[in-house]
Amino acid sequence: MLGILVSCRHNDNSADTKDTLKGKITISGAFALYPLTIRWAEEFRKLHPAVTINISAGGAGKGMADALSKMVDLGMYSKEVSPEEKAKGAWSLACAKDAVLPVMNASSPLVKTIQATGVTRDKFYGIFITGNVKTWGQLIGIKDANAMEVFTRSDACGAADMWAKFMMNKKQEDLQGIGVNGDPGVADAVRKTLYGIGYNNLNFVFDVQSRKPYQGLSVIPIDINGNGKLDKEEDFYHSIDEVMAAINDGRYPSPPARKLYFVSGGKPANKLVLAFLNFILSDGQKFVNEAGYVRLKDEMIKGELNKLL
Questions:
Q1: Which string of b and e fits 6-34 if b means at least 16 CB within 10 Å?
Q2: Are residue 241 and residue 174 in the same domain, yes or no?
Q3: How many domains does the chain have?
Q4: Same domain, 166 and 194
Q5: Is residue 156 domain-shared with residue 228, that is, in the same domain?
Q6: Residue range of the domain that includes 163
Q7: I need a surface site. Which of 192, 222, 252, 292 has the fewest CB within 10 A?
Q8: Which secondary-structure segment (H or E) carries 240?
Q9: What is the pLDDT of residue 1?
Q10: What's the mean pLDDT in 215-226?
Q11: Rounded distance between C-alpha atoms, residue 187 and residue 5, angstroms
Q12: Which residues are CB-neighbours of 152 under 8 A, at least 6 positions away?
């Protein structure tokens, strides 16, 4: 589990000296939303130095459970809230979009071949659901007996749920592979395994500073139309900005692209929490693309802001 306390004092003379916001906000949940939430918390505290924000990442399932039990003010959630969760009192607020990407070890001798052909949804189904595709040779139709080492998430999470939903509307528990905890765990396992394959949230595949994939990871392009090659309109994995553009205009499929949410047990009544959420959907939106996420459409942001009234 990753955690951070955003509470250091800022000597910022530009801060409003009449600022009355103070207190603590607690947040837990999805790894997918964790980096952006940290950024929002840092920027919010520049405006309101007397506020402390505790943030921990442990998976979307933990975020929802903590929110419903009132252990935290907000849960970070990386999939649609289910009717069952709503029946338990879950309230949600969409704040950004990202996607889950399939990944392989960047040192694999098959990287260039796979980047040219892509992999179809049916082949991913054979890898992660039925287990019928066991070798890299089977995957791309060549004589290569090297077995795949498939990694999946062991923690209840939105990434696994979205990846499974992409493959014939399956669920996380349908996914095969070696269970690894958290986004960092899966990325690290694939980096250390020459013939490894897995999936990660966008911000755990690409470095938002260089805008390129992290060292040791290579994105597996999706052959969306299933014609056995990666067409020009499917080839958008060279930088995080290209992937973000593809998510925004729908070229990257949804799922595994999806909206990200904050959830709580009922609509928040705490003035500080509401102020933070208002900031996220207003001035905070200018940090979304920079942080490697996709902004919601203006009309959707307007609708989400109305939930806070």
A1: beeeeeeeeeeeeeebeeebbbbbbbbbb
A2: yes
A3: 2
A4: yes
A5: yes
A6: 99-249
A7: 192
A8: helix 240-249
A9: 59
A10: 97
A11: 24
A12: 128, 160, 175, 176, 177, 178, 179, 180, 186, 198, 199
Query: Is 255 inside any structural domain?
Result: no
Residues 268, 277: contact at Cβ < 8 Å?
A: yes
Residue with tokens 């980047």: 115
Strand, coil or helix: 185: helix
Judgement on whether residues 164 and 298 belong to the same structural domain of the protein: no
Give φ, ψ of 165 to 5 degrees.
Answer: -65, -35
Phi, psi of 28 (to 5 degrees): -145, 165
Helix axis angle for 34-47 and 271-281, nearest 10°, is: 110
Where are the extended beta strands (E) located within 130-195? 149-153, 178-180
Q: In the prediction, which pLDDT does 14 show?
A: 41
Answer for the pair 291, 244: CB distance below 8 angstroms, yes or no.
Answer: no
Give one word for 166, left, alpha or beta, with left for phi > 0 and alpha for psi -120 to 50.
alpha
What CATH number corresponds to the domain at position 157?
A: 3.40.190.10
- Residue pair 98/293 in contact (Cβ under 8 Å)? The answer is yes
Q: Is the whole model's pTM more than 0.70, yes or no?
A: yes
Tell me which DSSP letter residue 260 carries: E
275: Cβ contacts below 8 Å, ≥ 6 apart: 21, 48
